[in-house]
Design a protein that fits this description.
- Helices cover about 25% and strands about 30% of the residues.
- With about 450 residues, it is α+β, with helices and mostly antiparallel strands.
- Helix 4 packs across helix 5 (about 225-235).
Length: about 450
C-alpha cells in the first residue's frame, strides 16, 4: 500500500505537470523598413522584399486510421471494484475534473492586401472594449435591487394593513376628503345632503352649479371624517345661487327677499299699521300693482326685510286732482288732505277769497303712504230688540193709575258687519253679513185705569 502511494502523486494531494502544447505558428517574417507615409520611398534599400510574401500552404496532416471498436469490458462491481479503487488511489476517490473548454483559434488577418507593420501610420491595433459596469458592481447592484424590491413589497403590505375602505369625495375633480362607507347613507346622496344643508342654513332654495363625484378607495383612519362633517365641508365649497323672491311695485323692482315667508312678513307689517283693533277676519290688499316673482340671486344682492318695511311704509308727497263736492271749502280741503290753503292757492292760481263751485276740479298736494292699503274687516255689534208693551184697561181704576201685571225686558241681537277702510279711513256704510238673536224680548203687560171719577183724598 505504501508503494502505491509513492508511485501515485495524487495520493499525496499533488497534481502532475501539464503536458506541453505544440503550436503551429507561421514563419517569422522580417520587419519592412520604416517610412513616414505609405507612398514615400524607403529610408534604405530593403534587404529582402516581403510585399509579395505569401505563406506556404499548410500541409494536411495524414489522418490516422480509426481504431477498430473493441468490445468493452464490463465494469467491475461489488467488492472487487472497491478493492481496485483502494489500490489505485490509496483509499481515496479520484476528483472529478470539469472538461476544459477548447478555445477557438484566433482569426487570421486577411493576406490579400499589403500588410502594414507596427511603425506604419495606418497601423490600427485592436481595441479592447471595456465594460461600462464591472461584473462585481453588477452583482452588488443586483443584490441591492432585489433587496429594495423586497423592502418595498413589505412596506406596501404594511400600508395596506393600516388602510381602510372609504369614499373619496370630489367636487368637479377637486378633492374634498374621505368619508366612511356607511350603508345607511348612499354615496349618491352626499350631494343632495350638502344642498339640503345649505338650503336649511340660508332658509331658501339653493341652486348649485358644480357636480359631486364619489369613488371607492382605501385611506388611513386619521384621514377619514364623519359623514356630517363631510356634508358641511362640501356645502362650504359650493358655488351657488339662491332662488329668491323679487317684489315689483307698478312694474318696478323695489326689493329682493330671501323666501316667501319674508315677503309675507313685509306685506303684513305694512298693512298692520291700518288695522282696526275692534275688527276681526281682516283681509287687506294694495291698490297698487303688487307682484311677487322668483329670481336667482346671490347673498350680496338680498335686501333686509326691516329696511324694506321702512322703505315701503315711508309716506310720499303726491298731487291729486279733486272734484269739489257740495259744502267743500278751501279750509275743509286743507284739513282733509293735510295741506294748507296757501299751497292750494299756489297750485291752482287762486286766492283765499276765491269762491269754488261744486263740480270744479282742484289740484291738491297731499302726503300719503307709498302704498294704499284697503282693508275689509268684520265687526260684531249687539243691537237691542225693544220689548212689546200691552196695556189692559180697568174702569175701576183712575186714569192716572197704571199697574204692571207682567214685567218685560228688551232682547239682544248679534249683528256681523263688514267695514271697508282705505288707509284706516272708513269708506261707505257697513255691510250686514250675518245676524242672530242672542236674547228674546219679553212682553210687558200693564193695567191702566180709565175712570175719571173724583177721588176723595183724606
Amino acid at each position: 500500500m505504501d508503494q502505491d502511494n509513492k508511485k501515485n502523486p495524487e495520493a499525496e494531494g499533488l497534481r502532475p505537470f501539464p503536458k506541453p502544447i505544440k503550436l503551429d505558428l507561421p514563419a517569422e517574417r522580417p520587419k519592412p523598413p520604416r517610412r513616414l507615409h505609405e507612398g514615400d520611398p524607403a529610408d534604405s534599400p530593403p534587404q529582402d522584399e516581403h510585399y509579395d510574401y505569401v505563406p506556404e500552404p499548410e500541409q494536411q496532416k495524414k489522418q490516422k486510421p480509426k481504431p477498430k471498436p473493441q468490445p468493452q469490458k464490463p465494469k467491475p462491481t461489488g467488492k472487487r471494484y472497491f478493492d481496485t479503487v483502494q489500490k489505485a488511489y490509496g483509499q481515496r476517490r479520484p476528483r472529478q475534473r470539469k472538461p476544459e473548454k477548447i478555445k477557438s483559434p484566433p482569426k487570421q488577418p486577411d493576406q490579400t492586401g499589403p500588410r502594414l507593420g507596427r511603425g506604419d501610420r495606418l497601423y490600427n491595433p485592436p481595441q479592447i472594449k471595456q465594460p461600462l459596469i464591472s461584473p462585481k458592481v453588477k452583482r452588488v447592484l443586483k443584490f441591492w435591487s432585489l433587496g429594495a424590491v423586497a423592502v418595498l413589497f413589505i412596506v406596501l403590505i404594511l400600508m395596506s394593513m393600516f388602510r381602510h375602505n372609504a369614499w373619496a369625495v370630489y367636487l368637479d375633480d377637486r378633492f374634498v376628503g374621505y368619508m366612511p362607507i356607511n350603508r345607511e347613507v348612499e354615496m349618491y346622496t352626499v350631494h343632495d345632503d350638502a344642498v339640503r344643508h345649505l338650503s336649511n342654513s340660508h332658509g331658501a332654495a339653493v341652486q348649485v352649479n358644480e357636480e359631486t363625484q364619489v369613488r371607492s378607495v382605501r385611506a388611513r383612519r386619521g384621514e377619514i371624517i364623519a359623514a356630517s362633517e363631510m356634508t358641511v365641508n362640501l356645502a362650504q365649497r359650493f358655488t351657488y345661487q339662491i332662488e329668491a323672491f323679487a317684489i315689483y311695485l307698478e312694474g318696478e323692482r323695489v326689493a329682493i327677499l330671501r323666501n316667501q315667508s319674508q315677503v309675507d312678513h313685509v306685506e303684513r307689517e305694512i298693512q298692520r299699521e291700518f288695522f282696526a283693533s275692534d275688527e276681526q277676519n281682516i283681509v287687506a290688499s294694495f291698490e297698487e300693482d303688487w307682484v311677487i316673482r322668483t329670481a336667482l340671486s346671490t347673498l350680496d344682492d338680498l335686501d333686509d326685510q326691516g329696511e324694506v318695511i321702512q322703505l315701503l311704509s315711508r309716506p310720499v308727497t303726491a298731487v291729486l286732482e279733486h272734484t269739489i263736492r257740495d259744502g267743500d271749502t278751501q279750509g275743509h280741503l286743507a284739513l282733509e288732505f293735510g295741506t294748507t290753503i296757501e299751497r292750494i292757492g299756489e297750485l291752482n292760481n287762486i286766492t283765499r277769497d276765491t269762491i269754488i263751485h261744486p263740480g270744479e276740479s282742484l289740484l291738491i298736494e297731499t302726503t300719503r303712504p307709498r302704498l294704499t292699503v284697503v282693508t275689509m274687516g268684520e265687526v260684531i255689534i249687539l243691537e237691542i230688540i225693544p220689548m212689546e208693551v200691552i196695556q189692559e184697561e180697568n174702569p175701576d181704576l183712575h186714569i192716572s193709575v197704571t199697574n204692571i201685571l207682567t214685567e218685560g225686558r228688551n232682547g239682544q241681537r248679534r249683528v256681523v258687519q263688514r267695514i271697508t277702510r282705505v288707509n284706516g279711513i272708513q269708506v261707505g256704510e257697513p255691510e250686514e253679513i250675518d245676524s242672530d238673536i242672542v236674547d228674546d224680548p219679553v212682553t210687558q203687560v200693564e193695567e191702566v185705569g180709565t175712570s175719571t171719577r173724583a177721588v176723595e183724598v183724606r
